[in-house]
UniProtKB/TrEMBL annotation:
Coiled coil: none annotated. InterPro entries: Iah1-like (IPR045136), SGNH_hydro (IPR013830), SGNH_hydro_sf (IPR036514). CDD domains: Isoamyl_acetate_hydrolase_like. The lineage of its organism: Eukaryota, Viridiplantae, Streptophyta, Embryophyta, Tracheophyta. Pfam families: Lipase_GDSL_2. This is GDSL esterase/lipase CPRD49-like. Residues 11-197 form the SGNH hydrolase-type esterase domain.
Length: 256
C-alpha cells in the first residue's frame, strides 16, 4: 500500500459502478474532487445483482482488514429489477429477496467499524425504447420497465429510511433533467456524462449535509502535502511562491 494513508471511499455495485470512471463518469468526478484527500476505490461488477453481491460482500469487505473504509457507496437494483426469465435463469431477484439482500449488505458494512459510513443509490429509471432498440443478438430479451425500476427504487429508499442510512433516489434524480431519456444515458441504461453529473452532485450533497463526525465533505478534509514551499510556482511580481494545492480551476464543474 502506498502512503501516506488516506481515508478510503469505496464504490460497490454493478455496471453503473464498474463503468463510473468512463464517459465522464461519477466515479471519476468523485476521484477528482477528493484528489489529495481520499482514495476512491472501485469495486464494480457488470451484470451483478444483490444476491451475487451478498455472496462476496465479506470478501470485498473483510471484517479483519487492517484499514476499513470511511465511506461505502452501494448500488444494486437495476439488474434485480429486470423481469424474470422463463427459464428461471438470469439476474432477476424478487422484490422481498432484494430488500433482504440489501439489508444484509448494509448490516455487514455497518459492522466493519464505528466510523464506516454508507450511502445507498436506488434503482434509476431507463429509456425503455432505447433498451429495446439496443437489444443484443447474443442475449435473451432484456425486459426493463420503469414500473419495475420505481418499485425497486422505492423499496431501497424505504429500507434506508428504516435503517437510518443515507440514500440517493436515482429514480427521481435523473428525471429532474430536461429530456432526461436522451440526456442521461448512453444506451438507455448506463449513464452518460450528464447523467453522472447528476449522480455525483447528489452524492456530494448528501455527504455535505450528513452529520457525520468527522465530516467526509471534501472541503472539510485535509489536503495532503499542502504546506507552502519555495518550489511552488512563482507569483507574477516574482517576490513569493503561490501554493496550488487547493486549486480547482481546471474542474469542468465547480462542485460544492
Amino acid at each position: 500500500m502506498v502512503g501516506p494513508s488516506r481515508p478510503q471511499i469505496v464504490l460497490f455495485g454493478s455496471s453503473i459502478v464498474q463503468m463510473s470512471f468512463g464517459h465522464g463518469g461519477w466515479g471519476a468526478i468523485l476521484s477528482e474532487v477528493y484528489a489529495r484527500k481520499a482514495d476512491i476505490i472501485l469495486r464494480g461488477y457488470y451484470g451483478w445483482n444483490s444476491t451475487r453481491a451478498l455472496e462476496v460482500v465479506d470478501k470485498v469487505f473483510p471484517k479483519d482488514a487492517e484499514v476499513q473504509p470511511s465511506l461505502v457507496v452501494v448500488y444494486f437494483g437495476g439488474n434485480d429489477s429486470m423481469a424474470p426469465h422463463p427459464s428461471g435463469l438470469g439476474p432477476h431477484v424478487p422484490l422481498t429477496e432484494y430488500v433482504d439482500n440489501m439489508k444484509k449488505i448494509a448490516l455487514h458494512l455497518q459492522s466493519l467499524s464505528d466510523s464506516t459510513r454508507l450511502i445507498f443509490l436506488s434503482c434509476p429509471p431507463v429509456d425503455e425504447a432505447k433498451v429495446r432498440q439496443n437489444q443484443s443478438p447474443y442475449l435473451s430479451e432484456v425486459i426493463r420497465t420503469n414500473e419495475l425500476c420505481k418499485t425497486y427504487s422505492d423499496a431501497c429508499v424505504e429500507l434506508c429510511q428504516e435503517l437510518g442510512l443515507e440514500v440517493v433516489d436515482l429514480f427521481s434524480t435523473l428525471q429532474k433533467a430536461d429530456d432526461w431519456k436522451s440526456v442521461c444515458f448512453t444506451d438507455g441504461i448506463h449513464l452518460s456524462a450528464e447523467g453522472s453529473k447528476l449522480v455525483a452532485g447528489e452524492i456530494l450533497r448528501v455527504i455535505k449535509e450528513a452529520e457525520w463526525k468527522p465530516s467526509l465533505h471534501w472541503k472539510s478534509m485535509p489536503t495532503e502535502f499542502s504546506e507552502d514551499s519555495s518550489y511552488d510556482l512563482v507569483s507574477a511580481d516574482g517576490k513569493e511562491t503561490v501554493n496550488s494545492s487547493e486549486w480547482t480551476y481546471f474542474w469542468e464543474e465547480q462542485w460544492d
